[in-house]
Amino acid sequence: MSVLIVNKNNFNSIVNNSKPVLLDFYADWCGPCRMVSPIVEEIAEEHPQYLVGKIDVDKEPELAQQFNVLSIPTLVVIKNGKLISQSAGARPKADILAMLE
Predict the structure, then answer these.
(1) pTM of the predicted model as reported, rounded to 2 decimal places
(2) Given a cut of 90, is residue 1 above it in pLDDT?
(3) Any idea what the CATH number is for the domain that residue 78 is in?
């Protein structure tokens, strides 16, 4: 499955899904975000049991504020509509997958 572009219009339907959700808060101008982005895309392709979404903090400041995103990239894991894990900064693929388990 490909990465979903998440915005305030589709946010609730995505996070209230039965699958665990990985959200990548990013910005196009952010260097570490560009390092994490291909990893997030790989996870989306290789692990259809997860929903993977990206949130552009410049376009969706309300969503970034809702999760107290102070630095990017920030990765958030939501299961059954509840925040399970949140991590700021670039992470290797194994660490991101560990957040989802």
Answers:
(1) 0.95
(2) no
(3) 3.40.30.10
